[in-house]
Structure formats: structure tokens, C-alpha cells
Amino acid sequence: xxxxxxxxxxxxxxxxxxxxxxxxxxxxxxxxxxxxxxxxxxxxxxxxxxxxxxxxxxxxxxxxxxxxxxxxxxxxxxxxxxxxxxxxxxxxxxxxxxxxxxxxxxxxxxxxxxxxxxxxxxxxxxxxxxxxxxxxxxxxxxxxxxxxxxxxxxxxxxxxxxxxxxxxxxxxxxxxxxxxxxxxxxxxxxxxxxxxxxxxxxxxxxxxxxxxxxxxxxxxxxxxxxxxxxxxxxxxxxxxxxxxxxxxxxxxxxxxxxxxxxxxxxxxxxxxxxxxxxxxxxxxxxxxxxxxxxxxxxxxxxxxxxxxxxxxxxxxxxxxxxxxxxxxxxxxxxxxxxxxxxxxxxxxxxxxxxxxxxxxxxxxxxxxxxxxxxxxxxxxxxxxxxxxxxxxxxxxxxxxxxxxxx
Length: 406
What we know:
By secondary structure, this protein is of the alpha/beta class. It has helices at residues 23-33, 69-72, 88-97, 120-126, 151-157, 160-163, 178-201, 211-217, 220-229, 263-273, 286-291, 293-304, 309-318, 329-334, 336-340, 382-390, 394-402; strands at residues 14-18, 37-42, 57-59, 65-68, 78-82, 103-106, 131-136, 205-210, 246-250, 255-259, 323-324, 344-348, 354-358. The protein has two domains: 14-218 and 339-402, Crotonobetainyl-coa:carnitine coa-transferase, domain 1 (Rossmann fold), CATH 3.40.50.10540; 246-326, formyl-coa transferase, domain 3. The strands form four sheets. A six-stranded parallel β-sheet has the order 5-2-1-6-7-8, sandwiched between helices. The protein has a three-stranded antiparallel β-sheet with strand order 9-10-11, with helices on one face. A two-stranded antiparallel sheet has the order 3-4. The longest helix has 24 residues, at 178-201.
């Protein structure tokens, strides 16, 4: 059903989602979490590429593979409609949906939708107030605009991999597709800003969101360090470029993250550990500790190995020194605080399968995000949406299905 909950922040807003894989679906999932009616258009018989990006897969009652976990991670709160818009009748059908939507999100190559009449200029001619968000690897302009862009490549080109990994090791990517996810988050911010403008003025606009742009922007303090100093930051493994000690250290039975953010916390650490390091001029203030990080690490290694991780955490938390364990995912999801915060939720799909998903992490006192719709089965909402928005009859839809359009 369409969204009708008046308490949802985006109730009454409809999104035409032509995106697939991760950056675009991540953005539209967030819009759906806040109440938008997201219509996910997928290719008949295949759907979003990530439906098959496994293992792991959901298993049906016969043990056959269903949708991959990858797809499930980014597609709740959407309605799946199968339309082959590579066919003229399919593109015409999508165009008929445009007047019913306030937002369109797509992540085809720059200019890739023009041949279907679904580029921004064509769509804006139908609905001038639409917020049209294009997500690509390199943007709509510039010498790389036509290149395909993948998160892994962008992490390398955008500098992140040059900063990640051990000093003597090879450049390392993040295990999580951070360029995709950050671009999705930036896209949501831009869409909401543009939607606010459209609601005030009636003027829509084209949003050009690029993975490389987002990756460079999210270099944050490390990017600023280079721009200020002209010096390339180096890989430091688990250490911090500007703060010490801010690193992983071995304990008697594992490892711990010690995250000392200021000189007072370092003195508190030394007091709890019974160490005189804070009185040593080499370590008495942060700048000196950064300059002498190798000597500091050697001293801390000797100190930290004397207790277990749990003993250190108990001791340092009492002293209000920031620290923490390095949890595996089974430990993450079993953590009592994670459970108390409701980080995981169970939902039941249309076919009866119950699945666990990571919940939206934001807490709003008046318009909290909710999961109204589990990640949909491929095409499960095609008939409903075409009847509801376009007033097509059963015979109309049957004809389209017979022609391979839906």
C-alpha cells in the first residue's frame, strides 16, 4: 500500500527509484525509512543485480537460493515493480509514473537514460518540479564522466587506500563500501534540500552526486592536513595521524583500542596503569607523543600486556579513559547495549520468510523512521502500483506481461 501514515516525516512523498546495487538503493532506502513511498523499478526476470550477489542467500522451503543478503541490506521500505524500459512500451510506462512522483533517483552511466527518454531534461519536461538525483562514479561532467565507477576503484582513486593499511604493507581498502554508502548519504541530504526548495517554489532540479567527489570530501581532517601543509599523510595502520596514543595494543589475551584524546586523559590512563609516562617530557603533551610515537608504543606494549582486555576495559572505564574491545560480528550483535538500542529488527516478507535486518540507526522523537515494508520480492507490487497510479486494468497488465514489458 502507499504510505498514508501522517506521522512519517516524508508521508505523501513518492520516489521513483531507477537505481540498483548500493549507493542509489541505500539513498532510497533511507527515504523510505522516513515514510516516502519508494517505487523500485526492476528488470523483469532479473531485478537488481544484488539479488544474485551471494552467498549468502535466503533459502526457500525447498532449500533453493532466494535473494542474496546484499540485496536485503539496502531495499526495505520499497515496492518492487518490474518494467523493462529498454522497450518503448516500458519507457512509456515509466514516463506515466513520473507525474505521480516528487523524486527520481538513478545511477546509470552519465547520459545512459537519454536513449529511453528518462534523462533529467526529458523527465523535467513532464514534471518540472521533480527532484532528479543522478548517482555515478565520476559525475555528469569532466574527463572521466563516461567511465563506470565502482566503490573499490574510487577508494583507490580518491586517496582513501593510500591512507589505509600498515606502513610497510600494501594499500588497503575498507571492508565496507564506504564510497558507495557516503555517496548515498550525501544524496539523501541533497534530495531533502532540493525537495524543500521544490515545495517552496515549484522548481525542481538535477542533483549530480559522484562517488569520487564524495570520497574526496570524506577525507575530512586528512584531506585538510594535506591542503594546509602540502605534505602527503602516510599510512599508519591502526594509529592516528594527529593523536597519540590512539591505537590498537595487545593485551594478555587479545587486543584493545586505546583512544586517548587529550593530555588529561593520558594522565588519567597513566594513573590507572600505575605508570610514570605522563611525567616523561617525551610524552607529557600530545604533540610530543605524536613525535615520539614509536617510543610511546614500545612503552605501552610492555604495560598493556600485563592485563587481559576485560581487565583493562574495567579499569580504564572507571578512570574515564576511552577504550574498547575489537568485536567480531557475533559479539557485536550479542552486545547488551546493541540489543537495548534495537539495532536489529525482524521482519516477515510477502512469502512468509522471516529475516533479520539492521534497523535505521536514527532516533527522532516525533517522526521516527520505521520499517513498514520488508525488502520486496521481485515484482511483487507491479500490478498494485499500475492499477493504483495509472488505473490500468487486469487485461492491460496481462497484455503488458505477455509482451514482456512488465
